[in-house]
Amino acid sequence: MSKPYVSVEGISRKFPGLTVFDNVWFGVNRGEFVCLVGHSGCGKTTILNILAGLDAPSEGVVLADGREIAGPSLERAVIFQGHALMPWLTAEQNVAFALGCKHKDWDSGRLRDAARRALEKVGLGAAMGKKPSELSGGMKQRVGIARAFAIDPKMMLMDEPFSALDALTRGSLQEEVSRLVTESGQTAFMITHDVDEAILLADRILLMTNGPMARVAEVVINTLPKPRVRATLHHQPGYHELRDHIMDFLITRSRTLAGTAPGDYDPRNPPEVRPAG
Amino acid sequence: MNRPVSAWRATLLSLVLLGAFLGAWELALQGAGQGGGPAVDPEYAALVGQAAATGGQTPMPKPSEIGARLFQLLSDPFYIRGPNDQGIGIQVAYSLGRVLLGFGIAALIAIPLGFVIGMSPLLNAALNPFIQVLRPVSPLAWMPLALFTIQDSSISAVFVIFICSIWPMLLNTAFGVSAVRREWLNVARTLEAGTWRTAFRVILPAAAPTILTGMRISIGIAWLVIVAAEMLVGGTGIGYWVWNQWNNLSIADICIAILLIGLVGLALDRLLGLLARAVAWHE
Ligand SMILES: Nc1ncnc2c1ncn2[C@@H]1O[C@H](COP(=O)(O)OP(=O)(O)OP(=O)(O)O)[C@@H](O)[C@H]1O
Ligand SMILES: [Mg+2]
Question: Is residue B184 included in any domain, yes or no?
Answer without folding.
Answer: yes
